[in-house]
Amino acid sequence: MILALELFVMLVLANGAPVVARRLFGHHWSAPVDGGRLWRDGRPLLGESKTWRGVVAGTLSCGLFAMAVGLGLFFGSLFGFMGLLGDMLSSFIKRRRGLAASARALWLDQVPEALLPMILAFFWLPVGLWQALAVVVLFTLSNIVFSPLLYRLGIRHQPH
Does the keyword Transcription regulation belong to this entry (predicted)? Predict the structure, then answer.
């Protein structure tokens, strides 16, 4: 149970650290991961909201937290990076569907960024399948519920 809670916290860190880093650093280190490139459909590959600053913040925060709770810096960093990779996959799919970065895509905005790192945790740690899926569901539902609140508080730029 404690391990599942730690993994949930790491998902929140991977998702939230880029938001905090944006507020702390403003436009500093905000180069987009896709370099502003367009896909063959003429739309951005990922969009300018996916930045190297966010990748570093999410990866590092997960790594440091994992190290602090005994899961290891390497595992935590890889876990955080996988979460961000899932988020980038969501953005890629949204751009292909013609959705703006701020457009809501329920489940697509949450599941890949939780599922990819939990697949890693399933194979790396003593986490059962149902426990891993429960963490994905908990993260997804909490993201859906709490994101509008964070938006109203001015922490997020979109309500989802």
Answer: no
